[in-house]
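pasting for the record
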Amino acid sequence: MSDANATVTELTVEDLTRIMRESAGEDESVDLSGDILDSDFTELGYDSLALLETAGRIARDYGVELSDDDLDGIDTPRQFLTAVNRTLTAAA
């Protein structure tokens, strides 16, 4: 975990969208600045590989490891944030 994020106990939707853009890019036809919490990742232009890239970036930046099993069944940003934040809270 980097020093800048050493005290992070919750990942926000803003953090997630920034990481998604940096890790996997952004479909120009999709507005990630809107209310996306309950949108399917596929509707947002992100496939399973993009989620793995995002999970890898979160692991490097925040020390949160999400396995393939953890990611299985996660279809929305809200579900993704719940899984990450559950791990962050447990580690605090």
